[in-house]
Structure formats: structure tokens, C-alpha cells
Description:
- The strands form two sheets. This protein has a three-stranded antiparallel sheet with strand order 3-4-5.
- The protein has 13 helices and five strands.
- The longest helix is centred in the C-terminal third of the chain and has 81 residues, at about 350-430.
- It has helices at about 5-10, 35-40, 90-105, 130-150, 160-165, 170-175, 180, 185-195, 200-250, 255-270, 275-330, 340-345, 350-430; strands at about 25, 30, 40-55, 60-70, 85-90.
- By secondary structure, the chain is mainly alpha-helical.
- The protein is about 65% helix and about 10% strand.
Amino acid sequence: MADSDSEEAAVLDNTDLTSPESENNMINTMVERETALLKKIDINVAESEKRSGKNTVNMQETYTVYLIEIRPANAAEGGLPVGDSPWRRYSEFELLRTYLLVTYPFVVIPPLPEKRAEFVWHKLSADNLDPDFVERRRLGLENFLIRVASHSVLSKDKIFYQFLTEEKGWREAVLETGFQDKADSRLKSLSATLRVKNPDKSFTDLKQYSDELNSAISHLLRVRAKVADRMYGVYKVHGNYGRIFSEWSAIEKEMGDGLQSAGHHMDTHSASVDDILEEEEHYADQLKEYLFYTDALRSVCRKHELIQYELEMAVLDLASKKQQREELTTGAVRVFSLKGMSSKLFGQESPEQRESRLAALQQSIQASEDAVLDKNQECREFMRMSWVEVKRFKEQKDRELREALISYAIMQISMCKKGIQVWSNAKECFNKM
Length: 433
């Protein structure tokens, strides 16, 4: 087996894409094993733990940490050295994702699970330390890591691998990359969005699609929460049937056994709603993931708008300098300028001064032409890479949401059949009275 350094380099620097044949890895979504990294290791967020400590402003707080474990995917063949099993806070996952957003702006970066419970029904606590919520978030964080590890570009990032394997020093390593200095401010991105003159229609359509997808999933989640709330009430009311039948059976001689049995079926039916709604929450989490994916799509659009805006500014700068060259060469001033007014007040420049200015201006024009070419190339390359990513995302979305909705429909059908069976059993009990 190769030594540790060569094994790690083989994963982090390998640029070959594997064949489309994939192995499904089920957490709460389907993820394809299409990268060298996932072929060598299995990634798990194994457990969560509640801790207390002081935050950055020296105040006591309670928070949750999550244990990341990786192990060789094939123990017989060996694999990467697994290193530490680090504990990570949710904020560290956020830092990793922000780093990936800045470093790979053309990628539709997988979203994190929600920080606080949203689209909940009344029984589910919205407390982010609630054990059920923490467990669902643990699964979501594991899914996020596998999403990143399954990506042909993101999986090769060394900072990501350090996040998985190094308990100490990771935060310092990610900050040393200087990614925060490269991050475009929200104000700058907003300015680009508002001021770009010729937005690309394909990205405009993509932004509109992401907004409409966000709206559709949001409405679906709200309806699901209302249905879950009503269903919980209906199931629990069956417990009243059970109580009444049991009390009634105590005063009946011939009908007593039948009423008691019917009441037992109703009690069982009433209690089953907790497991049903817990399963429903897992389907809701899959929908929420794609709700949050829409922001990743918009992030790609915002980055393109910024590049487009910078290209337009470079073109305007080049046009301005060419106009200055024309005015300097012909002596005709087309628009009011301070230099033109100075020439009228203090006399014309000498030929030597004009030649010197013309030479400097020509150099500046050449630099601006190079800048326009570079921005054009950057824009074309960004479009090429981002549309590969968008296509990949849409194929993944279509496949996974179709499977999730089919599974949800099957679950509802099964639930209704069980309800029918309960009443059929009750009917048999009544027939035997």
C-alpha cells in the first residue's frame, strides 16, 4: 500500500472523473458515489453532544457539537489515513460552506440543514437544542458532507479534507486562504444587480426559476404542516373513541368484550401518529434542502451579474480612453472637460508634451483592451462551468424530488390503508357482540 502522503495526494489531486455507474448512499437523500474521495472513504456524522462554554463576547452559552468520523470504504484494500475524528459546531459547517461559496462561485454549493426549525406544526418544538431536531440536523449535516464529497470539484479541496480529519488548526487554515478578502460584499453584489445594463437572459431566467421554485416548495411545506397538524388531531381523537369504548364495556355484559377490543384498536391507531409524523418530517427535510438550494442558485446568478457588471465597466473605460486619444490626436473636444478648458485658458500643449501624453494614453488603452479581453474570457468561462453545474443540479433535483414525492405518496396510501384496517377490525369486533 502507498504511504500516507501519496495516498492523500491521489485523492486530492486526481482529476479523472469516474464512470457514471454509481452506488446509492441513503441518508435522507440519494447521493452518487462518483468521486475518488467517496470511493476511498465513508463519511459519517456519528453523534451529537450538548456542551456549555463562553462565546466570543465572554457570555455563557449552550451549544451542540457533532462528531465527524471517516473510515476506509473498503477495509480490505485500505485507504486514506483517517486522522482525528473532529467535533464541529454548526458555525464551523457554516464557515466551510462560505469558503466553498467564495472559492467555487460557479458551483451550486449544497445547502446546510436549517439552523432553527421552520415550517413546523404545533407538536414539534422549534428549540434548536430539542433532541429530535438535533438528530434531524445531524443527518442533514452528514448529507451535506457527502454532497460535497460526491462533487467532482469540491471533493478535491484540501481545506474540505482538513475539515473532515483535523481536530485542531482547521479554522486557522481556512482563514489563511484569504477567502474572506476575495468575498464580494453584499452591497457590491446588489449594486451590480441593479446597475448591469445587459443582463444575460439565461441567468435572468435561472434567477426567476429559483424564485418560483422557492415559492412552490415554501407553499408545499406550509400545506404539509397544516395537514400534519390536522392529522395529528384526528388521530388523537381516536384515543377518545378508545376511552369511551373501554368505559362503555365496563357496564355491558354481552357487548363488553367487543367494545373492549374495538377500544384497543382505536388506542393503537391513536398512538401510531407519532411515528407517522416523525417519518413525515424526514420527507419535509428533503423538500427543505431544495428550498435552501434555491439560494445557492441565486448565488451563482449574483456572481455572474458581478462579472457582467465589471465587464461593462471595463468596456466603458476603454471607450472613454479611446475618445481621449481621438481628441488628443485631432485636437477636437467632443465633450466638456477640465483639460479642454485648461488648454483654452493656458494655451495648447507643445508637440513633445502631446506625444508624451499620447504614448502614455496608448499604453493605458492597451491595458484596458487586455482587461476587457480578460473579463470577456472570465465571463465565458464562468458561463461554461456554471451551466455544467446547473445541469447537474437539475438532473439531481428531478431525480430526488420525484423519488421523495413518490415515497411520500406511498406513505400516505399505507397510512390510509392502516386506518381502514383499524375500522375493519373494529367492525369485526362489533359484529361479534
